[in-house]
Specification:
The chain is built from 6 helices and 2 strands, in the order H-H-E-E-H-H-H-H. It has a two-stranded antiparallel sheet. 24% of the residues are buried. The longest helix has 28 residues, at 97-124. The chain is mostly helical and 143 residues long.
């Protein structure tokens, strides 16, 4: 999953459109922000920081899904909503930690695969990436 997440973030950032770039940047930002192992909030078998990360990701992807004209944010939002549901089930029911982790890994793979598929669909449709249309030059200082 880590290799696929890295590939999806890099591919979305380099060859994606504005929607893919925003999704890749958001996923990378949350991955970095919540990756600190010294700040783990644990209640029983439940990692509260992981619930917060997944809930924020689902909310932002849901907003992106309804604001953009792309299909992949709907798939990514669905994967994240189901991941939050796995967290809820691990709190409410007696689901094993291994089963919850397996479900979260599978849904994470679906999240990053949908971002990659969105970039691939943009490329197959012949749409140019944002990085190809931006003119990179230095700004002049104001006099």
């Amino acid at each position: 999953m880590h290799i696929l997440s890295l590939a999806a973030v890099v591919t979305g950032g380099l060859w994606g459109g504005r929607t893919e770039r925003f999704g890749a940047a958001m996923l990378l930002l949350f991955r970095i922000a919540f990756a600190n192992p010294r700040v783990m909030w644990v209640i029983g078998d439940v990692y509260i920081d992981s619930i917060i990360e997944d809930t924020l990701t689902a909310l932002i992807l849901g907003r992106l899904a309804f604001r953009s004209d792309r299909w992949w944010p709907f798939a990514a939002t669905t994967a994240q909503a189901l991941t939050v549901l796995v967290h809820v089930f691990s709190i409410v029911t007696d689901i094993s930690w291994d089963a919850a982790l397996s479900a979260r890994v599978g849904l994470g793979l679906l999240l990053y695969a949908s971002l990659l598929a969105g970039v691939a669909e943009r490329w197959l449709a012949g749409e140019t990436a944002v990085s190809d249309t931006v003119e990179w030059r230095r700004r002049r200082r104001a006099p």
